[in-house]
Amino acid sequence: MPAPDHAKPPVLVSWSGGKDCCLALHEVLRGGDFAVEALLTTITEDFDRISMHGVRRALLERQAASLGIPLLEVLIPKGASNADYELQMGEALASSRERGIEAVVFGDLFLADVRAYRERLLARHGLSGLYPIWGRDTAAAIRDFLREGFEAVVVCVDPARLDAGFAGRIIDDRFLAELPPSVDPCGENGEFHTFVFDGPIFGRPVTFSLGELVCRDSFWFRDLVPLATKAARESGVGFGST
């Protein structure tokens, strides 16, 4: 991926490693109106994993390296309150604003209350939000995601909304066909979360194998284990099985 064009307005992309933020990043890169300075990611430092999604930091780093975009990591402790989150995130946003960042890109699709919260938080630091996939039909969005050649695996499931057996599955046509009608095809209501490991904006696949399925804080998480360099070379794919 080419280096950011600093003649264009620089932005951050709010980044969980999942499909929605990846679609948003893809749209921003394709539009060419902004320079993406960094992927803004919240890390739970006690676990050394992406907050909410539970993906290991090592895989996040490999993902960012494949995309060719630096990470801006916001560290929070396990069990962090919303005040804790806003304090740490606020420091990152304030620092970014001082460097000339004026906007943060989000992959939200339709949750108006979430968008309003983001806008309030950003406004405290003189920033605005960009929502390149806002309002898109979620069934169409996930089909676009697959048609573009992106690949993602489910890493977290809310068992109140979706069976834990979906954790660890690849997002594909069969997955979508087997989702209950009550579940949004993009998991926009928090039914499931994903990790994107390959696609048209990646320099190379992010390789891993499936690890344990564990229940934590009432959610089921499927661990993804980074493949060693030699194993990754020999596998030739982004996804392996244990």
Given the helix and strand composition, which structural class is it? alpha/beta
Task: Characterize the overall form.
Answer: globular
Sheet with most strands: 6 strands, mixed
Q: How many helices does DSSP assign? A: 7
Q: Which band does the percent of strand residues land in? A: 25-35%
Q: Count the E strands.
A: 11
Helix content: 25-40%
The H-and-E topology, N to C, reads as EHEEHEHEHEHEHEEEHE
Low-confidence runs:
none
The average pLDDT value, as a whole number, equals 92
User: Compute the gyration radius: what is it?
Assistant: 17 Å
Gap between N and C termini: 32 Å
Can you give a write-up of this model?
This protein has 242 residues and is of the alpha/beta class. Helix content is 31%, strand content 26%. The chain contains seven helices and eleven strands. The strands form two sheets. Strands 1, 2, 3, 4, 5 and 6 form a six-stranded mixed beta sheet that branches. Strands 8-7-10-9-11 form a five-stranded mixed beta sheet, covered by helices on one side. Strand 2 and strand 3 form a beta hairpin. The radius of gyration is 17 Å and the shape is globular.
What's the layout of helices and strands?
Elements: E1 10-14, H1 19-31, E2 35-44, E3 49-50, H2 57-67, E4 71-76, H3 82-98, E5 103-105, H4 112-123, E6 128-130, H5 138-147, E7 151-157, H6 173-178, E8 192-198, E9 208-216, E10 219-226, H7 229-235, E11 239-240
Parallel strand pairs: 1-2, 1-5, 2-4, 5-6, 9-11
Antiparallel strand pairs: 2-3, 7-8, 7-10, 9-10
Provide a short characterization of the protein structure.
With 242 residues, this protein is α/β, with parallel strands linked by helices.
